[in-house]
Design a protein that fits this description.
Blueprint (H helix, E strand, L loop, with lengths): L1 H49 L4 H28 L18 H8 L4 H14 L6 H12 L2 H20 L4
Helix pairs in contact: 1-2, 1-5, 1-6, 2-4, 3-4
Length: 170
């Protein structure tokens, strides 16, 4: 009986180690997604603070960013579990997943939760831009050309990305 338990436990160790690594990689990527979404929320907040008339377009923009990043979160986990070759885990975390327009379209045709997320992102990419899109982009450009205006959220984002980059998954 002890021998059977020993044999069983030694055969499970590689699976447990792989699951642990995958869990770490998933957590690391999820933290990157959260940091990115937070950065965009802060950027929109600053733009709207300076120009309140950009509130509606800012909300529209954030909705699109959320669809994009939530698709990436879901797709990353799916590929991590099912097709790790699609992931570039040797690169910095922000480059681990690269979905092309064709990938998103193909995913959007699936009848699954991932397919629903892909459909939202694909539809965003195909839709007509908000009438104030250019004004919002101009406000972003103005903010980004004056680093003092974005110092706190940019430092927060950079600190989070640095911490995420330093996470080691073994």
């Amino acid at each position: 009986m002890k021998l059977a338990a020993l044999v069983l436990s030694t055969t499970l160790i590689p699976s447990i180690a792989l699951a642990s690594t995958s869990s770490c990689e998933s957590e690391k990527y999820h933290q990157y997604i959260d940091a990115s979404l937070n950065w965009y929320e802060n950027l929109v907040e600053l733009a709207v603070e300076k120009e309140p008339s950009l509130k509606e377009v800012g909300d529209w923009f954030l909705e699109g960013r959320k669809h994009h990043f939530e698709l990436n979160r879901d797709a990353f986990d799916w590929y991590l579990a099912n097709d790790k070759d699609k992931l570039a885990l040797s690169l910095p975390v922000e480059s681990w997943l690269n979905l092309t327009q064709q990938d998103v379209k193909a995913l959007s045709e699936q009848d699954s939760e991932l397919g629903k997320a892909a459909k939202l992102a694909f539809d965003d990419r195909q839709s007509k831009p908000h009438p104030q899109n250019y004004a919002l982009r101009s406000a972003f450009a103005e903010l980004l050309t004056h680093p003092g205006n974005i110092e706190k959220p940019l430092n927060t984002y950079n600190e989070k990305i640095t911490a995420i980059s330093e996470m080691e998954c073994k």
